[in-house]
Structure formats: C-alpha cells, structure tokens
Amino acid sequence: MFITFEGGEGSGKSTVIKEIAKRISEAGREVVLTREPGGTPIGEEIRNVILEKANTSMDPRTEALLYAASRRQHVVEKIIPALREGKVVISDRFLDSSLAYQGMGRGLGMAEIYQLNLFATEGLEPDLTIYLSLDPEAGIERIEANPNREINRLDLEKMSFHELVHEGFEKLAKENPYRFVKVDASNRVEQVIESCWDAVEKRLRWR
Ligand code: TYD
C-alpha cells in the first residue's frame, strides 16, 4: 500500500506523518517512511540543489525536471522494492506536489507536468493521498512562528504563489475523490491526526 501526504507550507504534515507511521507499525505492518524531493542518496543531492536559497536563477522547467528526476530515483530505488516486499510506503509529498507547485504555482500547466512525470513514475500512483488543507496565509504564519523551521527557496515565494499552489491541490482533491482524502489542517493537531488515521485505517482494513 502506497500512501502519500500532500499540502501547502505549514500544514503540519511532518508531525502527522510520524504519528500515522507509528500507528501503522503498531497495527503490525512494516512501514517505510520517506519524502520528496529526496528519499534516496541521489534524490537528497538533487533536493539540495532545488531547495538551496542561493539558487534564485533556477528556471521553472529546470525545477520541474529536477523534482521529476528525484522522483524517478525514489520510485525505482525505494518505493517499488518496498511495495514488492509487502511494506506500507508513506511518502511526505509525491507527484501531486509537482502538479500543484510547478503546474499551478509556476504556471507550467498541470497536464504538462503530469505528462513529464509519467516518464518518471511509469504510471505508479498512490493508493491513498491525504491532503492537509490549510489557508496559505495561515500556513506561512505558522512557519514564521516556528523558530526551528528551516526556510527553503520555495517558502520564500510570494503569497500569490502559495495561493495558486493551494488552488492546485484543491482542484486535484476534487478531481480525484477516490484517491484523495481532504483533511482540514486548521484544526488542532490531535484532531488532524485522528481524521488522517480514520482514512488510513479504513483502507488498511480492506487489504
Ligand atoms: P520541505 O522542506 O520538504 O517542505 P515541506 O515541509 O513543506 O514538505 O521542502 C519541499 C519543498 O518542495 C516544498 O516547498 C514543496 C516543494 N515541492 C515542489 O515544489 N514540487 C514537488 O514535486 C515536491 C515533491 C516538492
């Protein structure tokens, strides 16, 4: 089973993912917790290039290609082998992030970015995508209020960029009602975790 978590900045994804992974392994399933960009040594090197604050001259298509390159390595080196071994794979972000950030945010087109990524994923799709939905202004406020948070190149984008990303995710959730579960991330984190666990547990029971 392949589960992805998606959402804009400051949605509390990482806290929620850790707790969900813990509960799945307590339920007796082996879990592989991973992230994008990154997830493999090559992917982590690509991640550093993409997120480096000094790389202000990066062209949007270069950015889209680098995310797809990191994803390709992730799919073949980590995700598919783990799924073949019957493990539950949880990824902090996957293809939908490229559709929302590069497709909508950068204006490269969601359909175009989907095509580009098919080359990388060869059609691999999550069984379940949990989307933590949060008003982008609230998300950025949360990031700024957290003194331990590392700010990356995309966090520094204008609010209009984050609004577009949000619009992209909302559209994806509407268009993929079976794969997506949308969770209101403005609630208390305990409540967000319970909503996510509800969705995950239901799917686990089917398998
Ligand atoms: P990260 O520090 O992991 O952010 P977060 O905690 O918000 O997940 O940085 C990943 C950044 O990369 C984040 O701003 C979202 C962006 N991103 C894309 O633009 N496209 C993608 O395909 C992926 C996977 C991430």
Tally of helical runs: 8
Q: Could you tell me the number of beta strands?
A: 5
Q: Between the first and last Cα atoms, what is the distance in angstroms?
A: 9 Å
Mean pLDDT figure = 95
Helix content: 55-70%
Round the Cα radius of gyration to an integer and report it.
16 Å
Largest sheet: 5 strands, parallel
Q: Biggest sheet, strands in spatial order?
A: 2-3-1-4-5
What would you say this structure looks like, in words?
The structure is a single chain. By secondary structure, the chain is an alpha/beta fold. It is 57% helix and 13% strand. The chain has helices at residues 13-26, 41-51, 60-84, 95-105, 110-121, 136-145, 159-175, 189-206; strands at residues 2-7, 31-35, 88-92, 128-133, 180-184. The protein has a five-stranded parallel beta sheet with strand order 2-3-1-4-5, sandwiched between helices. Helix 4 (95-105) packs antiparallel against helix 5 (110-121) and helix 4 (95-105) packs across helix 7. It is globular. The model has no long low-confidence stretch (mean pLDDT 95). It binds thymidine-5'-diphosphate (TYD). The site of thymidine-5'-diphosphate has 15 residues, from helix 1 and helix 4.
